[in-house]
Amino acid sequence: MKPWALTVALAAALSAGCDGTSSDKPDAGSDDAGPPDGAGPECTEGTGAFPRPLELPGAEPNGVFDPNLAYDPASGRLWITYSGVTGPAGSGLVSTHLAYSDDGGDSWCEAGIVNPAAVVPVDDQPADKAQPDAHWSHEVSALAVDPGAPPEARWRLIWHRYLHIDDGNAATDDRHFEHGWIAQRRAATPEELLTAEETKLFSGLAYHVDSSVEAYNDSVAGGKPDKRFDQDPDLGSCLAFSEPGLLAHAGTLYVAMFCYRGATEQDIVLVRLSHTTGEWSYAGTLLDVADAQAINPALENFNGADLFATGDEHRLVITPAAGGAYLGCLTYELDLAQGTLPTKVALHGIEKTPDPAVFQTGACAYHEQSGTGMIVGDTFLSGVQFRLVATGETL
């Protein structure tokens, strides 16, 4: 399959994250000025009420989405990574932000932008696709502390980096997922992630679809991928990966993520890194299209994976989707060792926000050390489109 055909096919399924809603939605609201130089980190004040808008510092003009939480047991500090959007949904620039809380998530202070969206000059784009307007977007990030990793790399941030090229045709999708991968940064502390080296973690089949696509991808930040899943017997047909969730447990690091194999085959898969062998491997397929349609025949897939622990048990949080929109979140019991969901009956559910001004609800996040409860993302049809809500719901 040629790269342009891949782009058309993938765009229909990878309508995920904050740059994934339809590009005909209204534009963003107005920008807010940041703190003056030398004033220290920008912080927000909490209210303690639920449900409440999750006010995060350094918000970009079109809001924030794709939250993910991690807790530092050494400091007692709660961390959040999230996407900030400048410009309209579907065509805006998406950056990865990092913030922290010393009161369990009631108030937040900005640590910085880890991955700023970057305009790509024509000469730096793939020659066969080059246009005057292009940028790299960085979205759907996940953060975890991994006690089994070397001390200098115990904090890991991963996200989906992909190339966006505006071809001037409103009827086509401008996100080139063949020029995309799961990227990563590793550091001893969350703060050091801001300056840590960016490398490529995972690539799918689309990354390697032909020699010119692969050569361009290899030339961009991070060199060659650590793990080529196009060469894996279980995941070799995954054209692209997105929406990862991270969890460390018992000397192993787990990633749950969206695998796009085709129009009717889109799975949530689990992979793991053994610190004993240093190798990534397939752990199992957690959910597929048939599982979504068993809940409701109108559903098309699942996306927006998050992994978390509650006591000695583990959970998967996932977003069902249809018509290119997120329709809430479901929580399932997760067996990490077997790479399965022991039962595909949801333990907890959050429905789409009923407000008719909200286009979609999803990409939820949870951490047992957070006082926010479940965090949900809402996408509005007008004004600031991407907004997060702390529900206070505990699991």
Q: What does it look like?
A:
The protein is mostly beta strands. The chain has one domain (3-390): Glycosyl hydrolase domain, family 43 (Tachylectin-2, Chain A, 5 Propeller). 7% of the residues lie in helices and 44% in strands. The protein has 3 helices and 23 strands. It has helices spanning 3-13, 211-219, 289-295, and strands at 52-53, 64-72, 77-86, 93-101, 109-115, 118-119, 133-145, 155-166, 175-187, 199-203, 227-228, 240-249, 252-262, 265-274, 280-287, 301-310, 313-322, 325-326, 328-334, 348-351, 358-365, 375-380, 386-390. Strands 6-7-8-9-10-11 form a 6-stranded mixed sheet. Strands 16, 17, 18, 19 and 20 form a 5-stranded antiparallel sheet that branches. A 4-stranded antiparallel sheet has the order 1-23-22-21, with no helix packed on it. Strand 10 (199-203), helix 2 (211-219) and strand 11 (227-228) form a beta-alpha-beta unit. The chain is globular and about 50 Å long. The termini are far apart.
